[in-house]
Amino acid sequence: MDRTAIIGVGMTNIEAEKRRETFADMAWEAVNKALSDAGMTIADIDNVVTTSSDFWDGRTISLMAVGDVSGAAEKNVSCVEGDGTYGAFYANARALSGSYKTTLVTGHSKGSQCVSSLITNAAFDPIYERALGMDMVTACAMQANAYMNRTGVKPEDAALVSVKNHGNALKNPVAQLPMNITVNDVMASEMIADPLRKLDCSPVSDGCCAVIIAHESVATKFRQKPVWIRGLSFCTDSFFFGDRDLARSKALTEAAKKAYAMAGIKDPRKEIDLVELYDAFSYQELLWLEEMGLADYGKAAARLKAGEFNLDGALPVNPSGGLLSGHPVIAAGLYRIAEIVLQLRGDAGAHQVKKAKTGLAHGVNGLCGQSHCVWILDKEK
Amino acid sequence: MAEKEQLIIESGDAAQPFKYAVGMHGSKFFTETRDNMRLMGLKCPKCGKVYVPPRGVCGKCFVEMDDWVEVGPKGVIGTFTILRFAFIDPETGQQKPVPYGYGFIKLDGADTLLQHYIDIKDESKVKIGARVEPVYAKERKGNTRDIEYFRIID
Amino acid sequence: MAKRVAIVGTGQTFHKSHRPDVNGQELINEAVQRALADANLTMKDIDAILIGNMDHFEGINYVDCWSVDGSGGVMKPVIKITTGGTTGASLAIGGYHMVGSGMFEKVLIIGWEKNSESDTTGAITTAFDPIWDRQVFAGAISGLAAEAQAYMARFGASERDGARVSVRDRKHAMNNPHAQLRKEVSLEDVLASPMLADPIHLLDVCPRSDGACAVIMASEDSAEKICPVPDWIWGTSAHNTYSYLGDGDWGRLTSMEQCAKEIFKKAGIKEPRKELDVIEMYQPYSFAGLIWIEDMGIIGHGEAPKYVWDGNTDMGGELPVNPSGGVIACNPIGATGLIRCAEAAMQVMGKAEGRQVPDVKFAVSTGFGGCMWTNMLLHGKRKPN
Fold this sequence. Notes:
The complex is a heterotrimer. Chain B is mainly beta. Chain B has one helix spanning 23-36, and strands spanning 39-43, 50-51, 57-58, 63-64, 67-71, 75-83, 100-107, 114-118, 131-136, 147-152. Chain B has one domain. Helices cover 9% and strands 32% of the residues of chain B. Chain B has a five-stranded antiparallel β-sheet, with no helix packed on it. By secondary structure, chain C is α/β, with parallel strands linked by helices. Chain C has two domains: 5-119 and 209-226, Thiolase/Chalcone synthase (Peroxisomal Thiolase, Chain A, domain 1, 3-Layer(aba) Sandwich), CATH 3.40.47; 127-208 and 231-380, Peroxisomal Thiolase, Chain A, domain 1 (3-Layer(aba) Sandwich), CATH 3.40.47. Chain C contains 15 helices and eleven strands. In chain C, strand 10 and strand 11 form a beta hairpin. The radius of gyration of chain C is 19 Å and the shape is globular. The two termini of chain C are 14 Å apart.
């Protein structure tokens, strides 16, 4: 198979409400940042993939709002609905299929414009489940309980994820919620749905991220040092919670296994230097790390406590502050990819980690991590 | 065994409300319409095309636009139809009374067309190329309905 | 290296206006089972799934996740592509790139819709810009009627010319057991049917349907082993030319012209009228059967009415259009573009039964939607160079 690389990234600041800005305004900013990062003009881009959700945007064909500003007026274009990591997956396939050389992929969302509990309630089955009034937070609270019950991890153990990530966000200029907090602050914050407290949950956010993926034949022709795509995979578990083991995530294990295999990674704990993952809720950082094989099941909390996942730890996790510090749904996974790219280039500024050769970016679709997408990126080809 | 009764579950009044940001360009257009009954477009610095509705970027040239120009208020019908079937208007939940005129108005000085209602009191005059002018609402709130409709000028 | 890609199996539901006997997953599964049977494969052979629909018709968020019991996606990669009316065609293009990338050997592509589960016009209206378009828009028909008016004014076409296309497609649908509307109509029937939006009569437009379509694509490594005559994809194109409805050149479909030029150039097709054998066009109303074949470059501007009246696009004609009966006979929106692709594939594979056009070497399928957007695929019997 041919190789591809990421040669430019652009992120808007993640904010609680970008009241002045339309989807197009946000995308224009992110796209231009990515082009300028890559040292490209829009003429150097030969096709576009946008990532957006008709549900979150409140309009059918959400792509219509951002086509022009993504430079798609004269180019081939498509739209993936779901997390940005999936949009980028398709963008990468288009760069590999022989049809195109340079794909611009965007992901945008404005949580501020909708009522997120109603949007995520619509992810439940309309016949069997929806009338029970569940939403993403209540569903994930059940998952948190299932996980904690199985592993013995305590709410205060998970709270430390929130402390770490909000602390990392202090060093990331695009993060929405940089905060210097303690486990006690998390445990004293409002209970949203047992066992999840306010500071265990990611915020409602607005933001847009853009990434440029290039085929190896053109990857070094532009200004930026390419970050190589070594492995990527995604996998979807059963839909109904009763059909799944909610305390585990075998779809993530499968996606990670395939991504490692494609990347030629034999021992991920040794070979992966840093992780940006989808911590929509504090407990998820632990569970996802474990299911990706980066910690033993139920044991991530202890390693977190030992500081291993800190910015200066053995395996920095979410040095950007993660979703807990800013969660523009849909765009969130693309932000993870962009953050890994900055880290591997050594361009992450104050939240730069020391050793950054191989990084993992992770995105999620659906309720309680029904579907996962895993990317392995590398400084070297 | 196949069940004879096929049930339906209705979503009832379930709704997902949104608050859409109009953005800087739309806000300028609507406040000018509301306060001064002036219609404004944005001109591309590269190709010179004047866009109504205004938007921040000329898609074809991929450049930002900030050159506001007054357009209309008169224009011509670019194309139109007369709606003769009733449907539920998702904005109001009510059936729209039919028939009514609907079409795309090329405002004087604009290069794109503005979608709106067209008065059909005299259907024989509703033609592509017919001159029209806006009829403004008495109480204007800063949205597309600040123009009630366009009427044919004899 | 990039792989060449072929369609090796297709499956469709028998589309109807209302399928209360199945829920969404079950409807999807019907199409999936038929596609697997057609290709003589099982779910185990499938490496990835692409699925799409238009969210607001059913009101289900994360359809890719919700639908796994029907799609067979449990513990497989499932991805959703959604681009409005073009969704089905966008999915086919997506499948082409996923297989062509070398990442997946065989992919299952699913488009579906249960239009009976919501108010279709209302849902289509939400497609348009909430600030500028939505308050004064009236569903797809008003936009299409405006296009027809512009075309008639520009080229002097008549309501009868449009009706002729509807008569053709409805006649073709008689040969297609999957079509929802299978009733021949006369010109007079079309013109006497209620006027919905001038100049469009009820019998000029598509119905709303419940239905699903599934297509299986495979790479050149396995395509010919699965299927003796696979349908090779020669090229794909998608142009979303406009952002607002008023931006277009009314009476023309410039996105169709862009797609056709791009794809024919890539395949070395110089005279599409002579070199193509059949077209399955996403043609939601009759006048599009005139306007859009001009923009595709089949004949010159203003010449479509005569070309169609002369029978050239009928079964047995020079270049049959919509042997399936097309969208006017059946329109489960998220599936519609993929049905066009599947029907074109069946023509190339020689599996179109009663609607088979003899000896198809090249076929074109299209998708239409969004803001006068076009997607296009070129299908061929010969393996691309």
